[in-house]
Design a protein that fits this description.
Strand content: 15-25%
Largest sheet: 8 strands, mixed, barrel
Helix content: 40-55%
CATH class of the largest domain: Alpha Beta
Structural class: alpha/beta
Length: about 600
Amino acid sequence: MREAGSASSREWFRVLAESSRDIVLVRDVDGVLSYCSPAVWASLGHRPEDLEGTNERELIHPVDLQIRDALISQLLNTKVAQPAAELRLRTKSGEWRWFETIDTNCLENPAVQGIVTNARDVTERKAAEVELIELSLHDALTGLPNRLLVMDRLTIALARAVRANDLVAVMFCDLDAFKVVNDSIGHEGGDRVLVEIARRFTQALRHCDTVARTGGDEFVVVCEGLSSVEDATAVAAHIRAVVEEPIAFDDFEASISVSIGIVTVVGFEAETADPMILLRNADAAMYRAKQGGKARWALFDEALINAATHRRELEPELRRALEAHEFVLHYQPVYDLTDDTIVGVEALLRWDNPTRGLLPPDDFIGLAEETGLIVPIGIWVLAESCAQMRRWDRELSWPGWISVNLSARQLAEPGLASAINEILAASDLRPELLRLELTETALLRAGHSAAVELAAVRGLGVHIGMDDFGTGYATLTNLQQLPIDFLKIDRSFVITLKHGANARDHGNAIVAAIAQIGQTLDLETIAEGVETEEQAELLREFGCPFGQGFQFARPAPSHEITRLLTRPNGLPLARNGAHPFPGSSTERVLCPTAGYQRRGHPEPAVD
């Protein structure tokens, strides 16, 4: 064992220090360096003899000096080994490099008589860590902040709003029908469009604002330091205008619109505001903008708060409703307009909630879509509808069909064709007696796999139709390429039908054109929401063969439809507003069989 302070001991220490790739420094309590290992030349470019006698503080980054002083103070007070720390040291050329340092108190060791610092260059590791942090906080495609970072920025903005007593706005922005654009130009083209949209968002905002990409075509904007709600809506209007400018590349062009939901919080309210709730409320307002026609903005208000509360309360009840057998089907007849015979029925879902009564689909279908419950519910609707149609076919020999609405979420599920085939087999129903209706938007947004699944369903012999036609973006080319057999004219056009000069909004021309398209492409046309004899007469004139609506019959349970089908030719009891079911006239809007009131609005369908 070496004697402390002996020449051999000092030589042993020198050999160890000089053979190490790490820098070894020895300093006194004031920071003056008494020894620097040769590694300082390779790591920092300084010769050891040039540093010895100088103070280590000259090497340390000014920002890190406070950290260094605290570490040394703790080392001197406790006299135990300290954990590793990271500091920046200056090279001969003036560059700052990161080093991991470990200090040992050897002041009482005669062989050393100082504080020993081992320093390892970790600059590349720090750079990698910074890059990983950047990647974890930013969207890889656009370079914008991601959801994690924008939530952090929002938290900071709220704290500043409390101090400054100004307003913070959170905007949830969703590109309208982006999937249609993406499918038409390919995913690579869609990515280029998203990058351009991200650039436009950044261009439209101030430096103090934040825009983040939080999903495929979803962006979140945080604006702080605003004076009023009007300031926030002005920003939203500017974003819309910038985004909607045509996008032109060398090989394609695209036009995009955006729907924006806005929630604001001011001054003292910001102190208790929850960033997650603000974002959720902005999302809810965005959906209101979508429902209002898209390409617009909407403010979050008390009504949306109540709706959100209602949905939260309803979700656990909805989850148990299927197992509790609380869903029921009503059926609305479809009439041949030439002789007023019933040619088919549309199945419409109702929820017989034990505490809330009979609920229409508008009250719960959106929630079912969001939670994914629409998939098992949709399978139940299909199975129940097919079983009911088989009973009518077997017991009444009725030569009609049954139509079931299919949601976009159901269409996206793999194995749809197999599931429908199993249901048809279980109910012993001929495939041609089943019709499936999908909205125009759902059909156009269907990806390749969904389109293949839909073609397989049609291959079974099931007829497929486009619901709400005229409200989306379908073109004649789409209609020729899609696997569809019939079109349903949206009720918003039908209700505008009037004779002569009273016609408004070009409703007559639109309906006549759709009927003509159907004839040209050999597609059946069915008009929804027929409420008056005048509308029915005009539909006949335009060549639309089929219609459904309150003019003929309201939705009703299966036993009432059975009673109707057993009448001669399935004719209604009377015309001009009289209906086959009690309490179902257009004057008395509370329908006992439907269980709810919708004054001035047509019957909602499950979509």
